[in-house]
Amino acid sequence: MTQAWRCLRAIRLTATSRCFSSTAHRREIRDLADLPARVHPKVKETSNHDLLALQWPSPPRNILLVRKDDDTEVQTALLEYVNHIRSSYPDIAIVFERYVAEQVHHNFDFPVYAPLSENSNALYQEKIDLTSTLGGDGTILHAASLFATAPRVPPILSFSMGTLGFLGEWKFNEYKRAFRQVYVSGAPSPLKSTDDPDTSSASTAKPGALQTWSNIKGKSMGHTRSSRILMRNRLRIGLFHSDGHRLPHEPPFAHRDHECEDIFALNEVLLHRGALPHLANITILIGSPPHQRTLTTAIADGFLVSTPTGSTAYSLSSGGSIVHPLVNSLLLTPICPRSLSFRPLVLPANTPITLRIDGSNRGKEIEVSVDGVRRQQGLKAGMEVRVVGEEVTKPGEIGQVADVVGGVPSIVRSGGAADGEDHWVGGLNSLLKFNYPFGEDG
Amino acid sequence: MTQAWRCLRAIRLTATSRCFSSTAHRREIRDLADLPARVHPKVKETSNHDLLALQWPSPPRNILLVRKDDDTEVQTALLEYVNHIRSSYPDIAIVFERYVAEQVHHNFDFPVYAPLSENSNALYQEKIDLTSTLGGDGTILHAASLFATAPRVPPILSFSMGTLGFLGEWKFNEYKRAFRQVYVSGAPSPLKSTDDPDTSSASTAKPGALQTWSNIKGKSMGHTRSSRILMRNRLRIGLFHSDGHRLPHEPPFAHRDHECEDIFALNEVLLHRGALPHLANITILIGSPPHQRTLTTAIADGFLVSTPTGSTAYSLSSGGSIVHPLVNSLLLTPICPRSLSFRPLVLPANTPITLRIDGSNRGKEIEVSVDGVRRQQGLKAGMEVRVVGEEVTKPGEIGQVADVVGGVPSIVRSGGAADGEDHWVGGLNSLLKFNYPFGEDG
Amino acid sequence: MTQAWRCLRAIRLTATSRCFSSTAHRREIRDLADLPARVHPKVKETSNHDLLALQWPSPPRNILLVRKDDDTEVQTALLEYVNHIRSSYPDIAIVFERYVAEQVHHNFDFPVYAPLSENSNALYQEKIDLTSTLGGDGTILHAASLFATAPRVPPILSFSMGTLGFLGEWKFNEYKRAFRQVYVSGAPSPLKSTDDPDTSSASTAKPGALQTWSNIKGKSMGHTRSSRILMRNRLRIGLFHSDGHRLPHEPPFAHRDHECEDIFALNEVLLHRGALPHLANITILIGSPPHQRTLTTAIADGFLVSTPTGSTAYSLSSGGSIVHPLVNSLLLTPICPRSLSFRPLVLPANTPITLRIDGSNRGKEIEVSVDGVRRQQGLKAGMEVRVVGEEVTKPGEIGQVADVVGGVPSIVRSGGAADGEDHWVGGLNSLLKFNYPFGEDG
Amino acid sequence: MTQAWRCLRAIRLTATSRCFSSTAHRREIRDLADLPARVHPKVKETSNHDLLALQWPSPPRNILLVRKDDDTEVQTALLEYVNHIRSSYPDIAIVFERYVAEQVHHNFDFPVYAPLSENSNALYQEKIDLTSTLGGDGTILHAASLFATAPRVPPILSFSMGTLGFLGEWKFNEYKRAFRQVYVSGAPSPLKSTDDPDTSSASTAKPGALQTWSNIKGKSMGHTRSSRILMRNRLRIGLFHSDGHRLPHEPPFAHRDHECEDIFALNEVLLHRGALPHLANITILIGSPPHQRTLTTAIADGFLVSTPTGSTAYSLSSGGSIVHPLVNSLLLTPICPRSLSFRPLVLPANTPITLRIDGSNRGKEIEVSVDGVRRQQGLKAGMEVRVVGEEVTKPGEIGQVADVVGGVPSIVRSGGAADGEDHWVGGLNSLLKFNYPFGEDG
Ligand SMILES: NC(=O)C1=CN([C@@H]2O[C@H](COP(=O)(O)OP(=O)(O)OC[C@H]3O[C@@H](n4cnc5c(N)ncnc54)[C@H](O)[C@@H]3O)[C@@H](O)[C@H]2O)C=CC1
Ligand SMILES: NC(=O)C1=CN([C@@H]2O[C@H](COP(=O)(O)OP(=O)(O)OC[C@H]3O[C@@H](n4cnc5c(N)ncnc54)[C@H](O)[C@@H]3O)[C@@H](O)[C@H]2O)C=CC1
Ligand SMILES: NC(=O)C1=CN([C@@H]2O[C@H](COP(=O)(O)OP(=O)(O)OC[C@H]3O[C@@H](n4cnc5c(N)ncnc54)[C@H](O)[C@@H]3O)[C@@H](O)[C@H]2O)C=CC1
Ligand SMILES: NC(=O)C1=CN([C@@H]2O[C@H](COP(=O)(O)OP(=O)(O)OC[C@H]3O[C@@H](n4cnc5c(N)ncnc54)[C@H](O)[C@@H]3O)[C@@H](O)[C@H]2O)C=CC1
């Protein structure tokens, strides 16, 4: 890899020309399709068995920025953040969702990228190296949904703003440090810094060419540790007709060409009675044929199959236990079941679960939602949702480096006393007010 | 009252002519408005402080029959039941809801009654002496909803068929005994029986005239105890604009002339996020100005304010305690609250509770449902639901006879070991499977 | 009653001599038995139907002070409080529990009272006009236990110190205002004040003589509202052998002469497996013979029958609903039941509940505790705890004055925005952290 | 391995002499220490990823029988079972706990074994090849406790009798088939049967010699599948003084020589207030130094750290979720916490959890129990229980054979429709009455 660093200077010079050569390119939206292919990060097993160390084989180039809508604080932060990335990491191409790009591109004096053709989800998963979100958990869920058809999701760096952020741990005012740490993860350390300001905005000569870590403009990289990653496992979800054929998914979760393959969810899939205040009858089956068994036919407002990540979302409100994201499992949580004896279940992640709309619901449609996004078309009697935890391959031993397939690599916050730790316990206390003590001053 | 019984025979003769004089009247739907005014029953305090003894000042005449729809078993039972009432109690006028009358009247060779004008709810409460239902709890709720604007509801005799009947305790095969017992409650006991079959179908000379107990056709009345009544208290519900003006209710709960007065619910009023899988923000206030206090602003799928009767309905599914119908209280139960620390509350029945749609819901409409019937129009930010338990006046001392104002007088099942007892404990075990024991043989 | 006020001045003069005539009487513990008989307060129904107005027919004289042990802050406060009462209301006799009197009497230069004979509980209920507690809920529970055999409990004025006080609402720094308000409740208002310091420490000539409101030393009484009272209903508890004979209670709940009559609890009665980690089998019966029904035989760590007051105590921790103290009811809450389908129940206060130790427990003893005090001797197979809500008679109409029988008259906090309101809703929020919101700033 | 089978016949002849040579050996208890060393089974990964196939390298010889006490049905079954094993598998040595051996040995006309020296637990884990239990879950827990100090536990074959058996799935009437299947698991299939009755009771020539599968007396082995094993992971538990030194465990969990090492629990470790009805204050820490974090200080009746196996035991009663035994996790479940916001947690099995007795408990001792067995000596302020899931190594790929270290290998029931399946889902329904439907007919 050292080879890459050597050609640093030369490349930077050309890179400059890419971005600033022509004012014509400014305030412009270019097609994401034109960017070079994605850089797949590697991960290294750490001694803290729970977290993995991020390792870029070459620096990330295509950064997707996802923001919460209709929030001026977020909007202001976005501009500051993008300008910082652009000036400090000039090699980086800034990508937005198309509608966002249209709203914001005139704020920047450089071109931004967005998927300009139809198959936006497919493009994201081919091109995006890193996603960064500004907003709350809903923003992270939305970002993840853009990769709902992808077995390999780029790392997500999330800043919580405006609303409760249980999933995204970074404060916005840490953005410079946070971004730098992610950027250099895997780079030979310390990066040699150059003092020559002229050469500091290096980038690749042309899209697709090998890229290396740039010197961060005007600053030495210093010594930095790799970012730590918490792999959040997802659900794999298929929808089926009573005759066994697949039903299509709807955007933002859709495959291209209306393919009806499985999609992935970060929090949960929900079946719910919807607007009509009458109960849903749902049969729950465990396992896959020929080992499939009926667990129960249940009458309820709805059902959730949730990931451990989702255990602090809707499942929590429905009375489910709180499950650490690294417990390899699925939660089956009923919503207002018409039974005194339905207790939430935690099953192994590899357990196939089928939720079948019972015949007794007759005309009634049962609504299905994924990560808080409702499918326009509800499910009718006989239709099924089939769910299983996604399969994840990880490096097995400390120090081993590997590709990760499966899961959403979430960059955990570093710094302070609990540097590089998993912040889950802290979040229980500070955000969920877990076991909040009785008494006056609480 | 003995005066009434003396003229028994004469009246019967004329009564016959009312119903059978002309074949032209058969298979006909007549207007409920033509029937004589309602007979208000009295109640007597019993030594079993929980239950009241039913006392008709004169025999009930106008019986409203409410059935579960689309159920052939129920339909068959209805015909049998109506024919029995008609032949054994020929004085009685059989009333249906209009759409039911249209479906069933051709099965009978005598006229049936239904509200043929608009103000059906108003008519029911002016005319109906007794309601009898065939179906499940939903049927009883529907029957009660026809009296949702009435401070004084006629007694309800309910037969459970087809579905779980937690509210209606009688089995259909007990219908003869059950009906007779209700009919004669308050009659001098034993009624003198006549053996003359010709005279056995007595009734009133003309609508509105004083009526007395008929000899039940071909049978001596024997000695019977008064029916026992469990008073089920209701909620009083008003809907309000943010400017304090009232919103109208919708059928079946509507007042005549689109009056926006309070209505009554037997189970609960529900605020719910509806079809959109996003949380509702609702502020809950306790008490009425100037003593009103904010309890909390809560984020949840929804909220229930429930009667004790409703404590075994939706509130149960949402984790509420089971409250005996005679505990004079209201339940405030959240549905999937986004909080670890929202515990269901039980408040005194006379506590005014206000649920205000919080401004933060912005455009989103929150759905409001009463006893399982959803209002077409949802509530917007600032709108309020105001709820309080209805006021009920009852006789205070054992043996005292009084009018009852408020509550739904529900006729409890008699016979067997626990004759005249409140069957609530039994229902917990046999229907709700309360504390169902672990183990093989269940 | 005006007669009483007229002889004010004369009486005061003699009263002085009672207390200060001889230094020999200082630092002395006198027998509570020597004090005059108790003054039973009356209550008046208020427009705020929930709370009653306290009305002394003549000023309270014998004040029992109950404090939390082993707490120096409480101890310091106690001295300040007693000295204030003594100097401002010199007619008042200060009573302590005997062991407390022995610890504290040397701090005072006047005699204090305590029960010096055996039957202390009997004495308290004959002599005490008002109880005042310094400490937490445990202190209030203890104070109530001293009246566990009394159908009529004197009002309790509680200051919370040191630990969470959900039951006692006053802050200690309000003690002067609080005490004065209680003291003058029912006095003609405004009391005529005299400026003559010599006459300001009036009291009764001799114990037993009629007493009247003293002018509070050196101060005009001004205009004060009556104190507001929240009546907290208790449980009535009996313990029975399998042969139907009663078992005795143990101190502090014991009757005199080891009588085995019912006792009263403010929070709850608890049956529990105790130290052995094996389940208890308990049969629960509802009603009294011949209408008694078996609710269930349950296997659990234990069971609670709780008052609404106790609903925020142990029952809360066991998953019970929060029930407002004015809901006239009993809670049946299981502790760790070996069942998926045991839901807490709320029953009418007049429901007799029997908890019978099942034969299957064989040798094992089940522990029984009342308000957190464990009976030394556990219960064996066949033994029963029988519980029912105490009967309470209250004035029925606004403005009506009456004796109250039953319940613990708890003086609610006045002042501030919610003057004279029931502070229950406030306590839920400030102390129990009810529906504590998620998010950063807590 | 085929070598072993070849010398079958010769060995059998000598083996016979071991057991029947002398009547002097009958009705005798011999020392378990005299038996040959244990045969460690292997396991093979199956296509049903959840279950492992049992593989004996040579036939099991030393069978420990554990029974429920004081149950005549169990006692009768035990005799029948032992006599069957003895006559059909004459090579097998029958082992009992010492007190059981003393009670039962006179029923048998052959010697039985028991640990006659002190270190019984150490002996069991050196000698026992297979444990078989007759009784309920308590019996299985007791059997597991005999291996509480062993990293490698022999397989357990459990017959449920008398009480609910959620852990033991076999019915006693299946004992012949069940035992045979376990016995031959791993044998070349089909075993060659000999028709020579004289040679059918083969056994080893002398203790310690190589042994092979015997022909089951008078019967051909036919073709049998290997038994399927569900590995139930345990907790590793240490008790510590406030100064960091270890506290000893007590029997049946004790190590030899009062060593204070960790022990293993199958269900849970419990901290509880015990007999005194006052709350326990416990600080919960997650992780191990230097990454240890305080989760919370909680006030409760107690706390459970439970395995997934234990999730259907005490944790269930305390409101915990039901966790499948193959979810590699720990449950932290509070018992009656004095908080509205303590939700049960599910943590990765490798999370170290520390429960520290808070200083505020002062003199009070907190009781500690393991799998339902209470330690005589409670824990005082400052003392700690440290818990982590045991580490388990398993074969990674289908068809691979390996030793298992860690976990209790539990033989699942075979036969019928769901042959060789994990019966957990079935148990939820049939035993725990999971989601038992409302309605009349149960
Ligand atoms: N009653 C409830 O609790 C409901 C919860 N939801 C949850 O909302 C999610 C969608 O989120 P939004 O689009 O933002 O909807 P939203 O605007 O309705 O907010 C959902 C809330 O859940 C929080 N949240 C989301 N994921 C979380 C997680 N994994 N852990 C902890 N908190 C989490 C968010 O911070 C936000 O406070 C769904 O996946 C579902 O889990 C949706 C509907 C009802
Ligand atoms: N998740 C839930 O538990 C939901 C419950 N409901 C309840 O359904 C009621 C409307 O009933 P339907 O029109 O029949 O709707 P439905 O056909 O959806 O059935 C509701 C179920 O609740 C039972 N039920 C109704 N009132 C009851 C009571 N007081 N005690 C015990 N069980 C009771 C009925 O027997 C039926 O099994 C609503 O008032 C609401 O309480 C409505 C929606 C969801
Ligand atoms: N796991 C639990 O929650 C347990 C609760 N208790 C409760 O403790 C009571 C005895 O109190 P202490 O002698 O002070 O014992 P304690 O010193 O163990 O404290 C009990 C706690 O309960 C609170 N408390 C008591 N009564 C209350 C009420 N009515 N509403 C709200 N909070 C209340 C107290 O403020 C204190 O925080 C018992 O009557 C029982 O209700 C007793 C044992 C266990
Ligand atoms: N309130 C409760 O639920 C309590 C439960 N226990 C449990 O009892 C266990 C000890 O058992 P025993 O000595 O038989 O005591 P025991 O005679 O008190 O019975 C405990 C009950 O728990 C069942 N059980 C035990 N382990 C189980 C499991 N893993 N899954 C499902 N059910 C299970 C048994 O079948 C029996 O019904 C402890 O490990 C603890 O889990 C102990 C005390 C109280």
Give the class of chain A from helix and strand content and strand pairing.
Answer: alpha+beta
CATH superfamily grouping of the largest domain in chain A: Probable inorganic polyphosphate/atp-NAD kinase, domain 1
Attached small molecules: 1,4-dihydronicotinamide adenine dinucleotide
Query: Level of helix content of chain A?
Result: 10-25%
Oligomer kind = homotetramer
Named at the architecture level, the CATH assignment of the largest domain in chain A is: 3-Layer(aba) Sandwich
Task: Tell the overall outline of chain A.
Answer: globular
Task: Give the overall average pLDDT of chain A.
Answer: 85
Biggest contact: A-D, 52 and 52 residues
Low-confidence stretches of chain A: 1-24, 192-210
Query: Measured on Cα atoms, how large is the radius of gyration of chain A?
Result: 23 Å
Number of domains of chain A: 2
Number of DSSP-assigned strands of chain A: 24
**N-C termini distance of chain A:** 54 Å
Q: Would you mind describing this structure in some detail?
A:
The structure is a homotetramer. With about 450 residues, chain A is α+β, with helices and mostly antiparallel strands. In chain A, strands 11, 12, 13, 14, 15, 17, 18, 19, 20, 21 and 22 form an 11-stranded antiparallel β-sheet that branches. A 5-stranded antiparallel β-sheet of chain A has the order 23-2-3-10-24, with no helix packed on it. The longest helix of chain A is centred in the N-terminal third of the chain and has 17 residues, at about 70-90. The first copy, chain A, is globular and about 60 Å long. The first copy, chain A, folds into 2 domains: about 1-230, Probable inorganic polyphosphate/atp-NAD kinase, domain 1 (Rossmann fold, 3-Layer(aba) Sandwich); about 235-390, Tumour Suppressor Smad4 (Sandwich), CATH 2.60.200.30. Chain A has 9 helices and 24 strands. The interface of A and C includes residues 164, 342, 431 and 440 of A. Strand 16 (about 320-325) of chain A pairs parallel with strand 18 (about 345-350) of chain D, so a sheet runs across the interface. One 1,4-dihydronicotinamide adenine dinucleotide (NAI) sits at the interface of chains A and B.
